[in-house]
Amino acid sequence: MNRPKGTKDIYGKEQAIRSYIFDILKSVSQVYNFKKIETPIFESKEVFVRSVGETSDIVTKEMYVFKDKGDREMVLRPEGTAGTIRAIVENKLYTKLPLKVFYEGPMFRYENPQKGRQRQFTQFGVEMIGERNPFADIEVILMASLILKELKIPYLLKINSLGDKETRVNYSKALREYFRPFESELTQDSINRLDKNPLRILDDKVDSQKDFVKNAPRINAYYSEEIKTYFDTVISYLKESDVNFEIDTTLVRGLDYYTDTAFEFVSISGEAGSQSTLIGGGRYQNLVKEFGGPDLSGIGFGLGVERLMNELANIEEEEITEAPHIFVLNIADTKQKETMKLVEMFRANGFITEWNPKATKLIKAFDKADESGAHVLVIAGEKELANGEVTIKMHGKQHTVKIADAVETIDAHLASHEGGHHEEH
Ligand code: HAM
Known about the structure:
The strands form three sheets. The protein has an eight-stranded mixed sheet. It is built from 16 helices and 16 strands. It is an alpha+beta fold. Mean pLDDT is 94; it is low at 419-425. The chain has helices at 12-31, 45-52, 57-62, 81-90, 134-150, 165-179, 188-196, 211-214, 225-240, 287-290, 305-311, 317-320, 336-348, 362-372, 382-386, 403-417, and strands at 35-36, 42-44, 64-67, 73-76, 99-108, 120-129, 155-161, 245-247, 259-267, 277-284, 298-304, 326-330, 353-355, 376-380, 389-394, 397-402. Residues 79-81, 109, 111, 116-118, 121, 123, 125, 127, 254-255, 277-282, 300-304, 306-307 line the site of histidyl-adenosine monophosphate.
C-alpha cells in the first residue's frame, strides 16, 4: 500500500529540518506577541466559497469536498484564513484589539503535485485583526521577513496594493474593456473570469505569460489619494529597512478576499523549482464583516512549511539537531537497575541522555556511544557501580567520580568546553 499522491511521509533529516523551522516560527511568534489559535481541519463548504472566492482556482478546482453522514457538504481546509475568521466571529474574539493570532497545520488542495506543491501541505499563518494602519502592514511584513532571515533563506518580497472596493470596481471595468478584443486568445478559465473577476486573469498560470496580458492596464492608475498615501507609507518604511523588496503592480494573489496591501516572498535561491512563493499574504478589509462580524480590517500571511524545508534541504543535520549530552555505557550485567537509575538521574537534570538498554561488552557500547555523537561518555562498570562511582570520559580524559558528584562534574565540563552548551543548569 502506498501513500496518496501529493502527500509525504516526513522522517529523519527532513523531520529535523521541520522541527528547526517550527522552533523559529515559535520564537518569532513570541517576540511579535501572536497567540496560537486552532480551528477544525474541516469546515462547511460555505466558509471557503464565500471568502476565498467563487472564481478562485481553490474553490473551482482544488477543494476536497465530501458529504458527511448528515448530508452536509464539508471541505478539508485549503487555507487557514477563512476558518480563523469564522472562529473569531463565532467566538467574538474581538473585544481586545488588535487581535493577533497564529496557526499551523495541514491544508489540502487537489493540485498537480510537483516540487513544493502537494495535496496535503503544512501552513503556518498569522492574522492581525482590528487595525487598518500602514504600520500594522509593516509589522506583519517585518515578521514574515524575520522568519526568512532567521532561517537564512534568501528572498525577494513582491508587494502591491489592490486598493479598496472602488479601485477594484474601476480597475475591473478597465480590464474587461481591455481584454474583450483578446477574448479568443484567452483560456476558458480566463473567459469565465472576465465578467466576475478579471483581475485573476493577470495571475492565470497560462495567460499571465502572454504579451497582451503583460501589457494590460496597471492597478496603480486607479488608486484614490487615500490608498496612494497609505501604500506610500508602507513603501517608504520598507526602503529604510533591510527587507529586499520590489513593487509588482501585476501581483493580485489567488484568493479573492484581499484589498489594500498584498505581498509575496519569493525564493531566489534556485532551490524552489517553479513553486517559488514561500510566503503569501495581504490585507482584507471586508472578510470579518462578510462572516457576520463587525467592520474590522485584517492582515496576515501564510507560509508553506514544506517549501521552507526545500530551501533548507542542503543544511548539515548537525547544524540543526542537538547531539546527546551524555551516553551511558551499560556494561554491568548484574547492575541493570543501578544503570537505569543513573540514566534517569541525568535526564532529570535536563541532560539529553542516551544509553544502550541491553548490557553489552565495553567495546560494543563504545561503538554505540560514538554513533550517537554524545559529548560525554559515562562508563557504568561493575566495579565502579559497586563503589557508588562512575567513570566519566570527556575530551579524551577520564575521571572516576562519586555518582553524587557526576552531574556537577559534567555540568562544569560542558559549560567550559561547549560554549555554555548546558547553560541552563
Ligand atoms: P496562499 O498564497 O494560497 O495564501 O498560500 C500561502 C502559502 O502556502 C504559499 O505561499 C505556499 O508557500 C503555501 N502553499 C500553498 N499551496 C501549497 C501547496 N499545494 N503545496 C505546498 N505549499 C503550498 C493563503 O493561503 C492565505 N490564507 C494567506 C493569508 C493569511 N493571507 C492573509 N492571511
